[in-house]
């Protein structure tokens, strides 16, 4: 096979210094994308011959190889359709979906089946065969691919070890807990050595503790096998815990996307903010919210939310405001969290209206963001 | 009970078992693929062929709604064509089979439809072909339910086989009618009924046991 030299694909490296620069646009470039949606859309014909239902529209998304990308949206936002376009369970009605260099929409069903072996999938309700043991469930995709019995044994046993259920190999799904079943599901999805793992609400039916352990396993296979994970969920918690990148889907469109930390730290779209409320926001105590007004009243203090992100997240900003502006700062609520391995803090404080403007300037100066929530007497 | 009577009963039982076994085998051989097709050929399904599905469904319904005794008489020309006669054990197999396969088809169709659609999706995501989905997912998952359905089929067949006795089909029904009723031998009638009850019990409990063996869905196994 002919291979281009590493330099020849970037044409004229010395020339055109004033050429367009793409470096400022986005951290995620299309070059290393293993899954790419290019203005992809999906419409369903209405059963009664009425107006078409638009499930997805104008989806542009690049999933870089080796990343964990989360797609979050409410139910009915089109998440399921979107993830199913990657392995051709749904075909795009417009635009393209390219997986590992192959245009999925252009493939016939037979070729599609071969492609599906390089894309594993796990499900909310596990979808294990009740008539097969853990071992036989993991063996199924290999049987379908026509792998010999001896080869299957060589592949399945280490996989059961990897997902931590080697002792359950001869157990039927009915004899296993939800977490164990999802581990079988993950082993099954990995059986054919896929490059991409699709996760369809894989932890939505699990309790919080099991969710964490299953997510940790996904992160582990992502790291150890270099597997790209594309997951859909309605829980921001899941995205926060493992995703490097996130896209927010609302009514069939991606309304916000980027690396998880930036999206969490500076959400732009209202839907994103709603999702984030339960995860990163701090709840104000009732005695504050009851008295809070949206208009400044004479003698009222301003309630300000300060978001600490990045390297300055741990700087003593409050003491500085107090000292520089010679004013009192009352802490009403606060939390320090970690998103994608970086510290992220939220603090709600009350301060004198006169000190509000200079305080916000000072916060801005430190590279933090602030927002006035209201006023309280 | 005289030795002669016992001999008659024994040979009639064998005739019944023969009729039931052969018509069950042929009935399943035709009915099972038909049932699987009916369960997978509606619009948007694995072997989507909605028009053929509707035609076959209508034929199955027509056969299922014809009373058995009328079916036996109505298809006599067809029976003659196949076996050269319309009376006797071999001839009885034809109407029994024609009554059995639509029954089996509907039972298997409903068993297959009970399988969680999520499993079909998972198999498709693995790259399985429609045939692989049927053989590796749908049939094994539906096996407990299919086993119970086939048990029911055999039990009904035992009943039907006694009915063909009324039109000269041979077997236990024939014996019961000719000796028990026409020659007024109540002990023969009783013996026939007892043998039929024992047969049905044996079939039912074997079927139940098999279905339990195949069913891995509860923890108790």
Automatic annotation (TrEMBL), chain A:
PROSITE patterns cross-referenced by the UniProt entry: ABC_TRANSPORTER_1, ABC_TRANSPORTER_2
Range of residues in the leader sequence: none
Keyword hit for Cytoplasm: no
Entry's Gene Ontology molecular function annotations: ATP binding; ATP hydrolysis activity
Domain ABC transporter stretches: 35-276
Region spans: Disordered: 1-30
Cited SMART domains: AAA, NIL
Gene Ontology annotations of biological process type: amino acid transport
Pfam families cross-referenced by the UniProt entry: ABC_tran, NIL
Superkingdom field: Bacteria
Keywords annotated in UniProt: Amino-acid transport, ATP-binding, Cell membrane, Membrane, Nucleotide-binding, Translocase, Transport
Any single Gene Ontology cellular-component annotation: plasma membrane
Biased composition (Polar residues): 18-28
Function of the molecule: Part of the ABC transporter FtsEX involved in cellular division. Important for assembly or stability of the septal ring.
Family in the record: Belongs to the ABC transporter superfamily.
Protein name: Cell division ATP-binding protein FtsE
Source organism (scientific name): Afifella marina DSM 2698
TrEMBL record, chain B:
GO cellular component: plasma membrane
One Gene Ontology biological process: D-methionine transmembrane transport
The keyword Phosphoprotein is assigned to this record: no
Subcellular location: Cell membrane
PROSITE patterns (alphabetical): ABC_TM1 (PS50928)
CDD domains cross-referenced by the UniProt entry: TM_PBP2
Recorded topology in the membrane: Multi-pass membrane protein
Main location: membrane
Membrane-crossing residue ranges in chain numbering: 16-39, 51-76, 82-104, 146-168, 188-207
Family membership noted in the UniProt record: Belongs to the binding-protein-dependent transport system permease family. CysTW subfamily.
Name of the molecule in the record: D-methionine transport system permease protein
Species this chain originates from: Afifella marina DSM 2698
């Amino acid at each position: 096979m002919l291979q281009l030299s590493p330099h020849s694909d970037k044409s004229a490296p010395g020339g055109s210094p004033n050429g367009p620069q793409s470096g400022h646009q986005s951290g995620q470039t299309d070059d290393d994308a293993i899954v790419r949606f290019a203005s992809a859309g999906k419409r369903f014909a209405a059963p009664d011959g009425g107006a078409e239902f638009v499930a997805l529209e104008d989806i542009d998304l690049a999933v870089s190889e080796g990343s964990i990308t989360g797609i979050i949206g409410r139910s009915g936002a089109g998440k399921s359709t979107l993830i199913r376009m990657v392995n051709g369970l749904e075909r795009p009605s417009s635009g393209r979906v390219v997986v590992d260099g192959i245009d999925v929409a252009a493939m016939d069903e037979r070729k599609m089946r071969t492609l599906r072996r390089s894309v594993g999938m796990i499900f909310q309700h596990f979808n294990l065969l009740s008539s097969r043991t853990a071992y036989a469930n993991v063996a199924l995709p290999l049987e379908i691919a026509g792998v010999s019995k001896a080869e299957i044994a060589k592949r399945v046993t280490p996989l059961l070890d990897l997902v931590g259920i080697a002792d359950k190999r001869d157990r039927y799904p009915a004899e296993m807990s939800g977490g164990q079943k999802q581990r079988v599901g993950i082993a099954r999805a990995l059986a054919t050595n896929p490059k991409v793992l699709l996760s369809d609400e894989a932890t939505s039916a699990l309790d919080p503790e099991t969710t964490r352990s299953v997510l940790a396993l996904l992160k582990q296979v992502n790291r150890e096998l270099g597997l790209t994970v594309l997951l859909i969920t309605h829980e921001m918690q899941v995205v926060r815990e493992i995703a490097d990148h996130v896209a927010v889907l609302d009514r069939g469109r991606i309304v916000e996307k980027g690396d998880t930390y930036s999206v969490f730290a500076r959400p732009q779209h209202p839907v994103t903010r709603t999702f984030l409320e339960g995860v990163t926001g701090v709840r104000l105590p009732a005695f504050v919210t009851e008295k809070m007004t949206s208009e400044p009243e004479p003698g009222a203090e301003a309630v300000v939310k300060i978001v600490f992100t990045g390297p300055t997240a741990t700087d003593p900003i409050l003491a500085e405001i107090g000292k520089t502006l010679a004013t009192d700062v009352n802490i009403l609520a606060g939390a320090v969290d970690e998103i994608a391995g970086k510290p992220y803090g939220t603090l709600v404080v009350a301060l004198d209206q006169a000190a509000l403007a200079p305080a916000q300037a000072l916060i801005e100066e430190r590279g933090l963001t602030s927002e006035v929530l209201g006023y309280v007497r | 009970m005289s030795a002669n009577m016992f001999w008659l009963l024994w040979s009639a039982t064998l005739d019944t078992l023969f009729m039931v076994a052969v018509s069950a085998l042929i009935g399943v051989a035709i009915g099972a693929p038909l049932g699987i097709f009916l369960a997978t050929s509606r619009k948007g399904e694995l072997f989507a062929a909605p028009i053929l599905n509707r035609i076959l469904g209508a034929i199955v319904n027509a056969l299922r709604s014809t009373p058995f005794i009328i079916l036996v008489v109505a298809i006599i020309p067809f029976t003659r064509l196949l076996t050269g006669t319309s009376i006797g054990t071999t001839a009885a197999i034809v109407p029994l089979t024609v009554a059995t396969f639509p029954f089996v088809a509907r039972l298997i169709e409903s068993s297959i439809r009970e399988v969680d659609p999520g499993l079909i999706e998972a198999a498709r995501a693995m790259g399985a072909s429609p045939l692989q989905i049927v053989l590796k997912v749908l049939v094994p998952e539906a096996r407990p339910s299919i086993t119970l359905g086939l048990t029911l089929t055999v039990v009904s067949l035992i009943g039907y086989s006694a009915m063909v006795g009324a039109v000269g089909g041979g077997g236990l029904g024939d014996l019961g009618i000719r000796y028990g009723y026409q020659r007024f031998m109540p002990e023969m009638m009783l013996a026939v009924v007892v043998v039929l009850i024992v047969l049905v019990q044996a079939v039912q409990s074997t079927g139940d046991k098999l279905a339990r063996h195949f069913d891995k869905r509860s923890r108790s196994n």
